Amino acid sequence: MVNILAKKNSLMNLFISELRDKNIQKDSMRFRRNMERIGEIFAYEISKELNYKEQEITTPLGTSRMSLPQSEIVNATILRAGLPFHYGFLNYFDTAENAFISAHRKYHKDGTFSIQFEHLSSPSIDKKLLILSDPMLASGASMEIAYKGLLERGTPSHTHIVTIIASTEGLNYVKKHVNMKNVTIWAGDVDDELTSKSYIVPGLGDAGDLAFGSKM
Predict the structure, then answer these.
(1) pTM value?
(2) Is the pLDDT of residue 167 over 80?
(3) Close Cβ partners of 82 (under 8 Å, ≥ 6 residues apart)
(4) What is the CATH number of the domain that holds 118?
(5) What is the count of structural domains for the chain?
(6) N or C, which end of the chain has less CB nearby within 10 Å?
(7) Type and span of the H or E element at 25
């Protein structure tokens, strides 16, 4: 299943438009905050898919029976661009465990690149709900590597793969290379074009650089 939130009008569209806007992008604090706010919206939408159980809550004046989430959650993201996005999920799923994947593009002399997987810090994800987020889903290769690396820590009950902007090619790649039996994909918006260097067009540029500054 693939859910694209931009298909329905909401504040999500405003926040994504500000991420895309080259003038607003000059404010890196606002860029990070918009990614965080989008993460919060996704967290709310995903919360509708959790397991719930009715519990009795004692108030100062009596008791109230409420349906509360029971799912054990692991929030995972790909460094470094994913950090502000990740915090949006953590703001809402504040008791969740967390996982971090270090991966980057290594460019070769012929102009091609490969994804270099460097480090994984994660608790067991066995029988837990996994939320794997990355703000940009371009070629889909980083997401595949991150997901398969996390599976070495167990088999999740369900996985939500979440991105702010995806390319059509990236979505198709993930659907082809990831077992979709227990996976749901969430995207804020989808762009059709992907350049030879795997940049999404119109996209928004390099999310990591815009959030944290340029790198060597």
Answers:
(1) 0.92
(2) yes
(3) 133, 134, 135
(4) 3.40.50.2020
(5) 1
(6) C
(7) none
